[in-house]
Amino acid sequence: MPDRNMSFPLSRRQVVRGLLATSAFGLTAKFGTGCSQPTPTGTGDNKAGGKDYVVGFIYVGPKDDFGYNQAHAEGAAAMAKNVPGLKLVEEASVPETTAVAETMRNMIQQDGAKALFPTSFGYFDPYILEMAKEFPDVQFFHAGGLYQDGVHPKNISSYFGYIDEAQYVAGVVAGHTSKSGKLGFVAAKPIPQLLRNVNSFTLGARSVNPKITTQVIFTGDWSVPVKEAEATNSMVDQGVDVITCHVDSPKVVMETAEKRGIFCSGYHANQSSLAPKGYLTGAEWDWSSIYTSLGKQLIAGKSIAKGDIPHILRGGLADNFCKLSPFGPAVSAAAKADAEKALAGIKSGQLTIYKGPLKTNTGKLILPAGKDLKITDIELEKMDYLIEGVKGSVK
Amino acid sequence: MVHQSWQRSLESVLIPCLAVLAALVLFGGFCALAGANPLEVYAAIYKAAFGSWNAWQNTLIRASPLMLTGLCTALPARLGLVIIGNEGALVFGALLAVLVGLACGSGLPGGLVIGLMALASLLAGGLWIMVVGALRHYRGVNETISSLLMNYLAIALMNHLVEGPLRDPNFVTKPSSYEIAQTAWLGALPGSRIHFGLIYGALACLIAYFLIQRTTFGFATRSTGENIRAARMAGLPVGQLTLAICFLGGSCAGLAGMVEIAAVQRRLNESIVSNYGYAGVLVAFVSRHNPLAMVLVSVLLGGILASGGILQRSLNLPDATVLVFQGIVFLCVLYSDSLYGRLFSGFFKKIDYKSVAIHRAR
Hints:
The complex is a heterodimer of chains A (about 400) and B (about 350). With about 400 residues, chain A is of the alpha/beta class.
């Protein structure tokens, strides 16, 4: 046998040993516990599982992204906790393709979901529209405010918050904290909702110190961590000492800011654990309260199609659609006092963020003196400019 | 020789099966570590992927684009080229399909528009990859790198167009082109929600198999793939073969783009870039560039993807679990590649190097 050592590299004995080891591993690990508590394997279609009202949540990214998806996932968890009789099924990292249609279908048919919250903006058209048409008894809730009466199926409700109110208050804190008078904003794409955040943040800061400027850098996409880190670093090099952002996951921006020893203000969710020293506050979604209230209404048998739940739900700080992160250790007493004052003013409706005279950073007059735009004004949803004090261009 | 040939066919069935089985065992260990009962996980995967007609539909919907994009790697691979430009060819095919679909409007009969869109996407995808083939043949540019880079070109071009000249201002979800007319939508197979892409994919694989294994063109391609110098000596038109096989491969991926537009998304936007191309590369390699095996592998991968949901919803496993499973399966299958010609010889008889050499070259 000249080629003995060239043949199949494992001997029979080695194979047998391997098999034994594998099964032993299996036995010692979890097979045992699995057998002692025989949970029903019929997980696929336990529609008959009980009276629980099943609600499905779908996220476009991971549930722990310190950003958009985490905010929704935390809200969903709070809903499940606060509303007895409500069961939560979730699926994360579902792309905006037929995959999301299949996920919705499975949640309805296999898990018996009666209400769905597909949270990503891009799920809406065509996937939610098609599923809503096919399953008229299931209620669809979508974050984004895209519902059009008479055009879209009756069982869709669309909700969104005026989070720029929270950004204004965060701007007040940033304005108090900054020593250089230069703030930074890492932004994804120049869409109205994002521009509102940049402008509100700047207005908040300039209400403290009218000389403050905000440098904005557009990265071009919602999730490009390398560019976000680069943008943060370059702004720190220019002397920016408080930074905030509007990207899908603010994680990288917060971590970079902390590493460079400057202050930061969060977005979407609470990122204080990423920057324990420099985290000032942040504009967070407060989906917990909204989802809890929706959950209670769903359990009570209310429906969108019958008109018990409105097709369009919107609100700001006063309606608990958004909130501020707890103040970090670097926030001064004066900053806290002013922030609380702004918060109370916005909640009571006495403080208007967009009031004249207001100019864009190219010198165009947006609002003459004496005029103002309420936060609910539809004019603000068409925003395509940066206000005076912001350095950058939407083009 | 007869004896060896049945051994070889038995091997080509046994080895992939054993590989998948080994992967299941490894994945079971992983699930056990993650705190789930492996048996429950297997049952859930089976149920979600192949357990019912509903699950089968889910699986097949996910499998159909993979057959077409897989061919974009598998066909040129028979000629010895490693092309991973599937994503780019898909996007470019989709782009041309949308342009043609929008140009036709709703005036022409639907079937004709669909036909024209398909033709445009075939040409577009084909020419896209043919550029890679030409660069390789005439300028000696590495085809893997150039095709990879061309993916970015196609995606950037598509993004530029849908954010500029093609943009439908009334569609707010994300920058997108206008919608193609409803008459040009590609419907579902009767009695199901599976779109016609599945038929296109299966047919394309069948034709590709026939072309490679049963025609002179296929023989010439395989000969060139095995030894390009010998092929040149024998007078085979290597340049033409390279261009032709690249065109065919690319056109399949282009068609996948058209199907995705006409059957699913109906307008062009960044969602067209959803990894079908790269998954196709995996499918091609796992099926060892055999178009018939690709049908099976696509269905297997479709099933794995379809089961991703249930693992999260019912067993509370993290969302990356399905990727771990996919990775383990493919590593096992790729590793098992080294066992061909050794399975029987290692255990039962001496190894026959000639047959190994032949088998591995194929």
